[in-house]
Amino acid sequence: MTMIRRVYWILYAQLGINPIMMLRSLFGLSRYVVDFFQFRTKYTGRIELLPCLHDWHEEGGSTQDEYFWQDLYIAQKIYIANPKKHVDIGSRIDGFVAHVASFRAIEVFDIRPVTSDVPNIVFKQADLMNPSQSLVQYCDSVSCLHALEHFGLGRYGDPINPLGYEAGLKNMTNILQQHGLFYLSVPIGIARVEFNAHRVFDPNEILRLAEDNGLLLEEFAWVQSGVLTKSENPVKNFEELACSRYALGIFTFRKHTGLVAINTDDN
Fold first, then answer.
1. Which residue segment(s) compose the domain that 50 sits in?
2. Model-level pTM?
């Protein structure tokens, strides 16, 4: 089944071919023709053809996607925390960032350019594997959702660096002021690199790396099979999830120790 998903990913996400949608559309042709002639007999104005052949198979909105749950969950937490300055690193502009921008200002750092001028969003192009020293203790709240796993794989034009995620997490911690909150989500499960899509982390490794950088875990949740679960026992959950194929881990950390020197090596 994993191989089927992988082939589907290549066809759909990389080549723009969606076999499932194609089959649904082909089966929908007969319904389209019947509906068209039924409508045409009752309508006398100008009519042009623009078939939509698969929408009647969909729900009114998708709530199964892990991005949906992640974005909603963390945006609500930021709303409640109400930080003085929130910075996001690499999360989706049309998802999580838009959620937050609907109720407060947010700064966005990304290695890729963003040319749109959007109210409540201030964009700064930056490589968090090699950031500016001026960013030390820059804000009291940081988010990085579904982005750290890409650092150093070259997918988004970033330099190749097998340890890019370590440099990235270290530098994000330095952006954060003492006692500030850090919201992080990454794929978790059996540790591996799926080049050059992303890494999948053992959640225990994320916890170890966070603690090495002065971050204390406050809350943990995960999304698996379209369900968001809030952990009551992270240690136990980490053991179970580390043996699974895939889930999305959502960590809330608080910075609780002194600064770590910002990494400026050109690796």
1. 2-57
2. 0.84
- Mark whether 230 and 104 lie in a shared domain: yes
Number of structural domains found in the chain: 2
Low-confidence ranges of the chain (pLDDT < 50): 259-262, 264, 266-267
In DSSP notation, the chain reads -HHHHHHHHIIIIIT---HHHHHHHHHHHHHHHHHHHHHHTT--S--------SGGGS-SS---SHHHHHHHHHHHHHHHH--SSEEEES--IIIIIHHHHTTS-EEEEESS------TTEEEEE--TTS--GGGTT-EEEEEEES-GGGTTSSTTSPPP-TTHHHHHHHHHHHHEEEEEEEEEEEEESS-EEETTTEEEB-HHHHHHHHHHTTEEEEEEEEEETTEEEE-S-HHHHHHHHTTSS-EEEEEEEEE-S---PPP----
